[in-house]
Amino acid sequence: RGADPLIVLVPGVGMFSYGKNKQTARVAGEFYLNAINVMRGAEALSTYAPISDAEKFRIEYWALEEAKLKRQPAPKSHQGRIAFVTGAASGIGKATKELLEERGHRVVGVDLAGSEKAQAAAAELGGTDVAIGVAANVADADAVQAAINETLLAFGGLDLVVNNAGLSLSKSLLETTEKDWDLQHDVMAKGSFLVSKAAAKVLIEQKLGGDVIYISSKNSSFAGPNNI
After folding, report:
1. Alpha-carbon dihedral sign for residues 174, 193, 221, 113
2. How far apart are CA 27 and CA 167, in angstroms?
3. Is the confidence at residue 215, as pLDDT, over 90?
4. How far are the Cα atoms of 4, 55, 109, 134, 142 from residue 147, in angstroms, in the given order?
5. Is the separation of the CB atoms in 133 and 120 below 8 Å?
6. Which of 98, 196, 99, 185 is nearest to 145 (CA)?
7. Are strands 7-10 and 106-111 parallel, antiparallel or unpaired?
C-alpha cells in the first residue's frame, strides 16, 4: 500500500487525509475518526487495546480484498488532475467539463447562472468527489478568487484552467450600446484575465506546471505576420 501516511495531524490546524483521489482520502479520514471514537468509548469503560500486528496484516491483505483491488480498472489518462472550467453550466462549458471528467479530471464548474444550476450540472458527473459547482461572476476579482479558494479546499490543488465564459450580443454597430460593449469585454477579456491571474498564482506556488486554455469563437481568425 506504500509507506506514506494517509492521515497527518497538525496541532492547532487540523487533520489532513490523503489518497489516490478525493473519495479514498475522504474514506481514510472517516476510518480515522471512527477509530478515535472506538478508543474513546473503550477508555470510558476501561482501557483500549489494539489487535495484534499479525491480525491487522491479515485483515489489510485479505486474499479476497487483494483480488478485488487487482480487478480495478486502470487509471484514466488524466487521473488526479484538477480542472477549473468557467461558463460550465451549459453549452461548450458543460461539454468540456463532461469530457474532462471522462478522462479522469476532478472538475470545478464555475458559472454566473447561480449555485443551484452550477451544482446541478456538477452532480450529473457523479457527486462532490468528482465535481463541484460554484456560482461566480468572472468579471469580479473577489468572486474569482473565492472560486479558486473553493477549488483548493475541495480538491487540494489546480492543474488546468479553461476560460470558456462568454456571451454574444448579435446587434448591428449602430444598435450596440456602450453598456453592451462593456459587458462583453468585462466577461470575455477582463474575465479570462482575472481567472488566469488568480490561477497562475496557485500554479506557480505548486511548482507542478499546469495549463491555461482559452475558448475562442469559431468566427475568430489568426492573422500571421504576412497578413498584417
Report:
1. negative
2. 41
3. no
4. 30, 46, 10, 6, 9
5. yes
6. 196
7. unpaired
Q: Is the pLDDT of residue 140 over 90?
A: yes
Selection from 119, 123, 94, 110 nearest residue 158 by Cα = 110
Output b/e per residue, 96-122; b: 16+ Cβ within 10 A.
bbbebbeeebbbbbbbbbeeebbbebb
What's the CA gap between 7 and 27, in Å, rounded? Answer: 11
**What 3-state class would DSSP assign to 143?**
helix
The pTM assigned to this predicted structure is 0.76
Dihedral sign for Cα atoms in the order 83, 84, 90, 92:
negative
Encode pLDDT of 19-55 as tens digits. 888 888 899 999 999 999 999 999 999 999 989 999 9
Provide the grid cell at 92.
461548450
Reduce the DSSP state of residue 185 to 3 states and report it. Answer: helix
Which stretch of DSSP H or E encloses residue 97? helix 91-102
All three cell numbers of 183? 459587458
89 residue type, one letter: A
The Cα 152–Cα 146 span in angstroms is 10
Residue with cell 491483505: 61
Residue 221 has pLDDT above 80, yes or no: no
Mean pLDDT of the chain: 86
